[in-house]
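#lab-general

N.A. 3:47 PM
ok so I finally got the sequence cleaned up, no stray characters, all 296 residues accounted for. can someone with queue access submit it? mine expired

B.Y. 3:52 PM
send it over

N.A. 3:53 PM
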Amino acid sequence: MVECYFGRSLLFAGAAIAGIVELIDKKTGWQSSVLILPVVYLIFRSYRLYLARLEAERSHAENMAALHLRTIEALALAIEAKDHSTHEHLQRVQVYAMSIGKEMGLSESELEALRAAAVLHDIGKLAVPEHIISKPGRLTPEEFERMKIHPLVGAEILERVQFPYPVVPIVRAHHERWDGNGYPCGLRGQEIPTGARILAVVDCLDGLASDRQYRPALPLEKAMGMSLGSRKEFRPKSSGSAPGRYRELELLANVKAGEQARVPKNIKVDRGTAPGAGFEKSDSGRSLRGAARLIS
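B.Y. 4:20 PM
back already:
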């Protein structure tokens, strides 16, 4: 738009200069009109430099956007390397969150922040011990205390990326609740960023609709009613028309999950048969005791 405006201005200026040249030519002869040619050249040169600068800025912006996209994808793979169950979870959360965000009329910057946060909101789990993440059952109070650090750790990690849109506040607050009973800061109501409220609703939906070690997945339609309906934890009517479109959104999430790169499972390395210090002698009993010590 700026380029078009500048181009029109140059056109009018060129027409005005041409008129002045013709007027001078009629009154004083062509020798005098030649004197104005350097001015025309300077205007033309300035316009070319302006276009080159615009092109450089556009190219830089595209490169930065591509860099942030690759950063998001790489961090998402890091999350999956820690917990292979997150792949489908991340795709569902992103599809549903973006659908709700668009229906709520979020700005372009807010939507981009929500898109990144939907993929990266659990990156702080890299700091949570493996046995807690993959525990086949409910967490103890102590284990839950450890799990609750992941929004803060995730926000700390993503602050280093310096996204051009507000990703960090969403990640930090995605476990806050409208009634103030969430964590890590106990925010309530409008104190919680809109993107974080959307993410909390969709994260709850996926948790109910996915298999867990302590319970099987609920049917998606029932999970929809429990998570996107009226619940005191979340702001009412924050889900838009997503419940009525869940089949369409679920299909889109499955397609995106199939297109996304994945960390290969069951990797085996044949080289490196022993560490430099050698192996500790072990038997089955000692192995079990060692495993127990690791878990504790």
